[in-house]
Input
Amino acid sequence: MEGRVARISIAPVKALHLVNPDEVELGHAGVVGDRRFWLVDADRRLVNGKRHPKLMRVHPEWDEGSRRLVLAFPDGSTVDGVVEPGESFAAELYGTPHPSRAVPGPWQEALSEFAGEPMTLLWSEGGAQDRGRDRGGWASLISRGSLERMRAEAGSAEPVDGRRFRMLFEIDGVEPHEEDRWLGRRVAIGDAVVVPLGDVGRCVVTTCDPDTAVSDFDTLKLLAGYRREGVKEPLPFGVYCDVAVPGRVRVGDPVRAVARDPVAT
Output
């Protein structure tokens, strides 16, 4: 069954609002600039949407070539400038040392004030994806069929916004949870080929509206009711993927499973 790319979402700053480009260049380590920045607190612990969901209301603009970073806050204020990464900063991402550098400048102060606690903004030498460095999860995808199944389970008249799940690719035109059946297979997506490796277990962040950051939809209760156990993780919704063949992916590009990859099973 062939689908289409319905939406692309990246997060230049991990935990902040998503950006939706019309096309991206997908490399072996994901999309350059996706999760380029991340935040830690005074104890060097990861700052994410579970602890500070309001950060989703801060809209970033990032240009990888010019290194210009703009943060737009809900009150209408902006912080704008060119990033010059500083000294190496020792920090762990999900229990693993993650090569990063401190980012001096006004962005850190503005984010700390907005969140109500001191934070350090870090430049990730690679993408700060949840499953990237250790498990090859440099890309992720979810189908609108799965989102429709969740809507039906909730008995809601409104569609479920796929941005809640912060996946790189949102796919239309396939059956609910068709992406689960792609595990271990090579999947052509635009000019690239990915291999789904595992399902993505969900957390409380997905209960929050991606625009308001208000917890208004109990995704976890719904998943516990009909998708409690996954292949890799509990409460699964969507899959993470390795990138077998880099290439450009555009909104509207076809998506289809092409072969089984014996290495990835």
Observations:
- Residues 47 and 246 are 30 Å apart (CA to CA).
